[in-house]
Amino acid sequence: MKPFTSLTSIAAPLPEADVDTDIIFPARFLLLLNKDGLAEHLFHERRRTGDEPKFVLDTPPFDQAKILVAGKNFGCGSSREQAVWAIADFGIRAILAPSFGEIFFSNCLKNGILPIVLESLPHERAMKAAFAQRALTVDLETQTVSLGEGEAIRFELDAFARQMILLGLDEIGVVLAEDQSDIAAFEARQRSEAPWLDLSDGRLEALRDAIPGDARDDLF
């Protein structure tokens, strides 16, 4: 995950409501577990109909968008994380919508995509700016979306989630980055107070060798 502080980009408008994860990433591609290359299947059915006009993410300049302005309840449906992986592989780093599927929202945070919830009127302004092909600036440090021409929108985000995206880390990464001294202190105290729980430095092998053969085979 790359740290996210500020991003300026054309925003792709997708005003449709209730776009579910099967639309974003069809189920038949779920066997693909490598995150690289999944953008090929992003909105697969919408991008391969041959109809005109083309799907927004295939239409210049929106095919270069790093911001998506979506309709309400975006990412509803199944919990498949590949939907978020495909969006990230396409290059989108921020999604603005009135609401999100709960699990999809969480998956975005775990994969370095900033999901921004906007009220109705601010969302309408952002969608209008996207259709007008105005570059938007998403600034996570100030928690604002600048729409150009002096317009700006403030958004809210949980403090821990904000820290994750700013640092480019998931929950475990944040804990390891910020609480390393506490973890080390706990481990030192545990080794002192309950040494039998410490299986580091070859102690697991010593424990295994001390167990009779038949029992050792069952345990190990």
Please explain how this structure is put together:
The protein is of the alpha/beta class and 220 residues long. It has nine helices and seven strands. A seven-stranded mixed β-sheet has the order 4-3-2-1-5-6-7. Strand 3 (94-97), helix 3 and strand 4 form a beta-alpha-beta unit.
Can you give me a brief rundown of this structure?
The chain has helices at residues 21-24, 82-90, 102-110, 120-131, 159-167, 171-178, 180-193, 203-210, 213-219, and strands spanning 6-14, 67-70, 94-97, 114-117, 135-139, 144-148, 151-154. It has 220 residues and is α/β, with parallel strands linked by helices. It folds into two domains: 6-169, Alpha-Beta Barrel (Aconitase, domain 4), CATH 3.20.19; 179-219, no CATH class.
Topology:
Elements: E1 6-14, H1 21-24, E2 67-70, H2 82-90, E3 94-97, H3 102-110, E4 114-117, H4 120-131, E5 135-139, E6 144-148, E7 151-154, H5 159-167, H6 171-178, H7 180-193, H8 203-210, H9 213-219
Parallel strand pairs: 1-2, 2-3, 3-4
Antiparallel strand pairs: 1-5, 5-6, 6-7
